[in-house]
Write a structure and sequence with these properties.
about 110 residues; mainly beta; about 45% strand
């Protein structure tokens, strides 16, 4: 099993919050949307720009640079100019703490 990274206490990550953590040297944005934690690589696939701080609505995060939207649950690019998906990471809740780990490769 891959090493997981502590993001923080659930109480420190309320609805609508975003935070970036490093997982194996890669920046990952963790978003609390409608009580669910999502983790995606913190990088727009269009022009290499961080997703952290982008607007979150309708289950999507918007890149502030050019407006590309990515689905939180799948990482799929939902609007141009991005066409490639963003890599997803697994979130885990344990004893009131939020963790992130890489998804296992098939």
């Amino acid at each position: 099993m891959s090493e997981r990274v502590l993001v923080g206490q659930q109480t420190d990550l309320p609805e609508g919050s975003q935070v970036a953590v490093l997982v194996n040297g890669v920046s990952v944005v963790v978003v609390n949307f409608e009580g669910q934690y999502y983790a995606l690589r913190n990088n727009c696939t269009h022009k290499d720009y961080p997703l952290l701080g982008g607007e979150v609505s309708a289950g999507r995060i918007t890149c502030e640079k050019h407006g590309a939207k990515f689905e939180l649950s799948t990482g799929k690019a939902k609007t141009l100019p991005a066409v490639k998906p963003v890599r997803l990471y697994r979130t885990e809740l344990e004893d009131g703490q939020v963790y992130v780990a890489p998804l296992e490769s098939a």
